[in-house]
């Protein structure tokens, strides 16, 4: 519950030209209404479309102790420009997962590089390729599951060993 209040902030960008941005935590009413998360986090703006997320350092006093934390600030395009009037803040972007490269492509490229370079020993290349072939065959084979005895048969064998 506390984390929801302290994850997103509400800001006042009225003095943005002086590079003064006032920030505060969300109130319970703002949390419920979505202000600062689904609605622009600027105090006077109610924009709900094209919101961008910014990660901003928030300095505050708690029990006479100065604390710093990184908070998320959701702003519309106009308010984002005001926030970044003099300095570029860190924008949080979703990372697009890159497709993993296939190991066989790397091994083919390495083989091509080695083919282009003159080799002195042909015998040293043969064991390497055979090891790769063996490893590939192990993963391509079907999993062989050993037939396990039913529990009753195991129990009978155990009793026979105890009695004899």
Please report the number of helical segments: 6
Task: Give the total of beta strands.
Answer: 5
Q: Estimate percent helicity.
A: 25-40%
Gap between N and C termini = 67 Å
* Series of secondary-structure elements, N-terminal to C-terminal: HEEHEEHEHHH
Radius of gyration: 32 Å
Strand order of the largest sheet: 4-3-5
- Average the pLDDT over all residues and give the rounded result: 73
Main sheet?
3 strands, antiparallel
Shape: elongated
Low-confidence stretches: 118-131
**Proportion of residues in β-strands:** 15-25%
User: Which structural class is indicated by helix and strand composition?
Assistant: alpha+beta
Write up this protein.
This protein has 164 residues and is of the alpha+beta class. The chain has a domain at 2-91. The chain contains six helices and five strands; from the N terminus they run αββαββαβααα. The chain has helices at residues 2-5, 28-33, 77-83, 103-116, 125-140, 151-163, and strands spanning 9-12, 22-25, 52-62, 65-75, 90-91. The strands form two sheets. A three-stranded antiparallel beta sheet has the order 4-3-5. Residues 118-131 have low confidence and may be disordered.
């Amino acid at each position: 519950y506390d984390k929801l209040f302290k994850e997103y902030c509400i800001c006042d960008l009225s003095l943005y030209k002086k590079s003064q941005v006032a920030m505060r935590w969300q109130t319970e009413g703002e949390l419920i209404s979505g202000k600062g998360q689904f609605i622009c986090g600027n105090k006077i703006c109610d924009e709900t479309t094209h919101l961008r997320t910014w990660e901003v350092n928030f300095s505050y006093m708690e029990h006479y102790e100065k604390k710093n934390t990184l908070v998320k600030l959701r702003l519309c395009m106009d308010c984002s420009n005001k926030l970044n009037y003099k300095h570029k803040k860190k924008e949080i972007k979703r990372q697009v997962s890159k497709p993993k490269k296939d190991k066989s492509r790397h091994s083919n490229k390495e083989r091509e590089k080695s083919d282009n370079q003159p080799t002195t020993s042909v015998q040293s290349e043969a064991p390497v390729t055979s090891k790769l072939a063996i490893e590939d065959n192990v993963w391509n084979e079907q999993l062989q599951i050993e037939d396990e005895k039913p529990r009753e048969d195991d129990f009978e064998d155990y009793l026979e060993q105890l009695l004899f």
